[in-house]
Design goal:
Layout lengths: L2 E15 L2 E4 L3 E5 L5 E6 L8 E9 L2 E7 L15 E13 L4 E16 L13 E14 L2 E7 L4 E4 L2 E2 L2 H6 L3
Antiparallel strand pairs: 1-2, 1-7, 3-6, 4-5, 6-9, 7-8, 8-9, 9-10, 10-11, 11-12
Length: 175
């Protein structure tokens, strides 16, 4: 049987406040960071040209975006330039060709600093939205309980599909 998972069924967000987490209410949308590798150039004898290869020790700046419909007390925690930590949970609807249905759980943990404190457009009669942006230094993505990506820019750590691509470099540097 084939499955299709193409619709976000729902999501639930939390933000760190003190030593615990509180619900982040009125979240309309969010985008987790893209992980973009810088590239290294490979060239030399026996090659007919140059090849650019992804370099996991050179990850470009990451950014997370969270859109809220109100600036409740908890949403204002997203504006902290000294540090933000959020947990973003969502589920995709998984539909089988036989009509069966299930949910695929996703979880992202994001740590960083507020990089944009939203102003936002306000129009009479329309919902007032605020887009909060977080300059992200830590990103962990789990799908169905398995870690798919873990990027820690400060550690440094780059784990993709269970493989730590910086393990040998960190050993060589005695980190």
């Amino acid at each position: 049987m084939k499955y299709r998972a193409n619709k976000v069924a729902d999501f639930f967000c939390q933000i760190k406040k003190g030593t615990g987490y509180v619900d982040l209410q009125n979240v309309d949308a969010f985008s987790v960071p893209d992980v973009t590798f810088g590239s290294s150039e490979l060239s030399g004898a026996g090659m007919i040209g140059t090849v650019n290869i992804p370099d996991p020790s050179n990850i470009e700046a990451m950014e997370t975006s969270i859109t809220t419909t109100s600036d409740s007390a908890n949403a204002k925690l997203l504006n902290d330039p000294d540090g933000v930590e959020v947990i973003l949970n969502w589920a995709l609807d998984k539909v089988g060709t036989d009509g069966s249905s299930a949910y695929i759980p996703y979880r992202a943990v994001v740590k960083g600093w507020a990089s944009v404190i939203p102003g936002g457009d306000k129009k009479k009669g329309e919902v007032a939205e605020s887009e909060h942006k977080i300059s992200t230094w830590y990103y962990k993505l789990e799908i169905n309980g398995k870690t798919v990506a873990l990027i820690d820019m400060l550690a440094p750590k780059c784990v993709i599909n269970g493989v730590d691509h910086l393990e040998n470099l960190n050993k060589a540097l005695n980190r």
